[in-house]
Amino acid sequence: MKFTDLNDEQVEGLIGQVLRIGTTVSCGITFIGLCIFMVHNARAIPHYHIFLSSLGQFYGPSQLMQHVMQGQATALIELGILILIATPVARVAFLVIAFALERDHMYVGVSALVLVILLYSIFFSQ
C-alpha cells in the first residue's frame, strides 16, 4: 500500500503513532538518564539554605552524541528532552507531506508556515 492510497483516518492513525513513539522514546531515554543521575548522585547532600545559580552545560549535537555514548546522565536527559521537542515538529512535517500528496494546497501552505515558525523559534530564539 502506498502512502497516497491512505484515507484520512489512516493518516491520522500514522500521525498518532508518530506522537506516541516520539513521546515514549523521549520518556524512556529521559528516565534512563534520570536513573543514572540518581545512582551517581545518591549520596549528594543538597544545601537548600545556599542558592547557587548555575547556567549548566548544554551540549551541541556532536558533543551530545559523544556524551550519550559515554552514558552521561545529563546528556541522556538532554537527548530525551530534544526528542520530546522534536516530536510535534515531526508531526507538522508529516502533515505537510500528507497534504502535499493529497494535493491540498491551502493546507500545505498553512502547515508549511507553521513548520517554518516552529523551526525558526527553535533555532533562532534567544
Salient structural properties:
about 130 residues; mainly alpha; 4 helices; about 0% strand; elongated
Q: How would you summarize the topology of this molecule?
A:
Layout: H1 8-40, H2 61-69, H3 73-101, H4 105-124
Helix pairs in contact: 1-3, 2-3, 3-4
Kindly describe this structure:
The protein has four helices and no strands. The protein has 126 residues and is mainly α. The chain has one domain (8-41, 59-124). Helix 1 (8-40) runs antiparallel to helix 3, helix 2 (61-69) crosses helix 3 (73-101) and helix 3 (73-101) packs antiparallel against helix 4. The longest helix has 33 residues, at 8-40. The model has no long low-confidence stretch (mean pLDDT 85).
